[in-house]
Amino acid sequence: MRKVVFIDFHGTVAYKSYSDTLYQVLTEFHPDNIHTKSAFRDLLDGSYLWDNPQIAHPQYNKTEKWWKYMGGKLSEAYVQLGYKDDAEKMTQRFRELYTDANEYLVYEDSLEGLKKIRQMGWKIVVVSNHMPELKKVVRNMPFSKYIRRVISSACIGYEKPNIKFFEYVLKKTLYPKKRIMIGDSILADIQGATAANIPAILVRNSLFKDNENCKYFAKDMLEAADIIEKNF
Q1: For residues 179 and 199, is the Cβ–Cβ distance under 8 A?
Q2: Into how many domains does the chain fold?
């Protein structure tokens, strides 16, 4: 692959948050609960593997090992909220929902933006801090035909912005001469890619569009495709 666009998944082309899903499951099991989504954000802050990207985690590279670790954190959150009896069942339900592509919000501009990038001759590789089943989810997205490959941090043991993550994806794509990163995180996507000598485009996150590390900013994927067409 000589021309590759690396694209983040969550928050860039589609969206489904952990906190929202945890709350969705809680409400399904206990409709009259008094909690909010923010309760899960507070309880799980710092618990996700991508919260500590400087730490490698090859011991969780297998699907069930990854979910044993992550499921333990999610189950613990339910227990702390007072749902010990249902914690295991709710965690399993979370996994069912989070691995279901139909549960994700796909941004309206994603399909046309990815289509345009592909038509310009670029291969598209999804690279994301995500779960082991990300490939299955992407395969069932409306834009799946434009995606050449999917690489999830859960399967390689490194999280963006760790330089080892980007070294891995560059090796797997045969060190493309032309490469670009598109993502919504100034730290994980933009700074991480730039450190690996990959030009980067920040999307959707206008809060950081004037950040010194952000040379290119796009409001959506269509605008990102325009930036690629004009500058690369």
Answers
A1: yes
A2: 2
